[in-house]
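stage 2 :: seqdesign
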């Protein structure tokens, strides 16, 4: 069957046939089938990636990243299962769980200088379903997380889809005190003019630009203008996916305020994050040492 499915998938679609997992289509169907119960079976978890202030040289926040460990297929990346969850109509459920877990964790974290901010990714269909305001309000109420600590990460494409309904919801969230970040900035189509009209507090500079910032003059120019615009508009700019000291050095030179990436820390389990906060109090962020 798998062979036939792979053949049917046709030429040029780059589907590889795997004798164990079957075709890409079979894998998707399997994930689609198993996803609804994954939460109840305890297969989901939230990882936390530190966000570091390049000015204060310390951790000021974390981004919550959903993890799914499938009993047979192993770790399934969110880039693969989130779109499946959207199409299957279970993203709301998943998202509420992730928000709740992340918020519970955040309120229990040790506090060093100030309570860490918490970024949570929100998918387009969750925004479109219009349950987001209620879901966020419920989580804040249940967990006691201060709204100012929560940053909802929404992609350019979602915000730019910009129906009036979405604008109303985002405005309601900001009136509650919740912050909004424009995720993966640079990959979508928002013009810089449009940016000033968007209801956001944080700009997350996409990894694609950060990856070449130290080698490609065009990436560097793009990062430079985004950082400058961010400053002009009073937005925090976070560089995503910083992997090398050279990248970090250039970003700092350009005046970028915040960074996250494997150089600073990979996404951590809650126990690892807690330990880091308990033992690292007051210390300079290790990844920053020698990176000036
Ligand atoms: P994102 O929001 O842009 O998250 C950043 C991704 O980059 C994460 O991948 C993170 O592990 C990865 N990353 C961080 N630093 C580096 C680095 O230095 N190098 C490289 N190569 N990668 C780095 P992850 O966890 O696989 O998540 C992928 C995407 O899935 C996220 O992109 C986000 O759009 C989505 N996602 C994750 N969790 C959730 C969630 O709870 N809800 C929704 N709706 N989407 C989620
Ligand atoms: Mg994000
Ligand atoms: Mg991002
Ligand atoms: Mg990204």
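stage 2 :: out
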């Amino acid at each position: 069957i798998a062979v036939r499915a792979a053949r049917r998938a046709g030429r040029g679609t780059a589907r590889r046939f795997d004798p164990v997992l079957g075709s890409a289509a079979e894998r998707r169907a399997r994930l689609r089938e198993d996803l609804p119960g994954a939460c109840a079976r305890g297969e989901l978890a939230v990882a936390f990636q530190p966000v570091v202030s390049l000015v204060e040289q310390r951790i000021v926040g974390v981004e919550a990243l959903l993890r799914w460990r499938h009993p047979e297929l192993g770790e399934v990346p969110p880039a693969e299962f989130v779109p499946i969850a959207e199409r299957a109509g279970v993203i709301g459920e998943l998202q509420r769980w992730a928000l709740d877990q992340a918020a519970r964790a955040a309120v229990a974290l040790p506090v060093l200088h100030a309570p860490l901010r918490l970024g949570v990714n929100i998918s387009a269909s969750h925004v479109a379903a219009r349950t987001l305001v209620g879901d966020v309000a419920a989580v804040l109420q249940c967990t006691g997380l201060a709204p100012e600590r929560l940053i909802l990460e929404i992609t350019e494409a979602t915000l730019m889809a910009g129906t009036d309904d979405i604008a109303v919801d985002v405005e309601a969230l900001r009136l509650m005190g919740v912050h909004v970040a424009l995720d993966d900035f640079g990959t979508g189509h928002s013009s810089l003019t449009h940016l000033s009209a968007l209801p956001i507090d944080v700009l997350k500079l996409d990894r694609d630009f950060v990856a070449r910032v130290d080698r490609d003059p065009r990436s560097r120019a793009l990062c430079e203008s985004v950082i400058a615009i961010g400053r002009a508009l009073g937005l925090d700019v976070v560089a995503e996916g910083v992997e090398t000291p050279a990248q970090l050095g250039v970003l700092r030179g350009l005046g970028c305020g915040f960074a996250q990436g494997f150089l600073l820390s990979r996404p951590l389990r809650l126990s690892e994050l807690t330990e880091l906060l308990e033992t690292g109090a007051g210390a300079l962020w290790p990844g920053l040492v020698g990176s000036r």
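stage 3 :: structure notes
- The two ends are 56 Å apart (CA to CA).
- The longest strand covers residues 58-70.
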